[in-house]
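#onboarding

Welcome to the new folks! Below is a worked example of what a typical request in this channel looks like: someone posts a single protein sequence, and someone else replies with the predicted structure as tokens. Don't worry about understanding the tokens yet, we'll cover that in week two.

Example request:
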Amino acid sequence: MCFRSYGRPYIGVQYPTYNLAPETGAWIIGDGESLPFRKFPLRVPGLRHTSKQLGDDMRKNERKATPMRFHEGLQQLRKDAGGMDIGATEIWVDVGVGNDPEPVRRFETFTADLNRMTEWLMDCGIKTVVMESTSVYWIPACQILEDKGIEVLLANPRYAKNVSGRKTDALDCQWLRTLHCYGLLPASFRPAREIASLRSYLRHRQMLIEYAAAHIQHMQKAMTQMNLQLHHVLSDITGMTGMRIIRAIVLKAITGPNTYLR
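Example response:
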């Protein structure tokens, strides 16, 4: 049933209507107790809030500031620490102003330069040095320093990121030393020298096995291109029989057609 109340059409049961909250756009149909026509909004916009209600809501959403303490007297844990930025051709070292009037120096990566760098660090009283694990460039310097009794801390470059700004090798070594002096750089895991040597042999063996598999595939591809279907006849062309046949083919191609391998 359709009827009008104050110029507004309604569809539903015919009940008297009351506009109890004109500022909100909500009309009450009937006495408010009959279902399902309890509240019937006429306008789409939301409810209007007064300034007092908005202020109360904002105060409820505000978070209380957590008191924080700042320790401005941070002391250095190690003043006998140095920082190194290692590259392929040069190394920048910082020992601090208190250990040398010229704290930042540059060295090349030759063995004589590394020995000279180690002697300079020992003269400055440096007992520990931090460096980033840059490829394999850090290994020679690390071994020479450890042989001279200087502790080497190998840091992950992700943990030693510099602040935003212009980045240079001289600034990087100073930043590394600053973090190391305050004990803010965790050391990466490094096995003992004997375990490291064994690990290098195992890695080299695995690499040779992978290279051998790739070269066998190259041999099979070359024989297929020459229409030598040897890998269809033998189960393993790298076995004794397969290698004798391959050597005979290569020797015949080099020396002539009348030469055979015994």
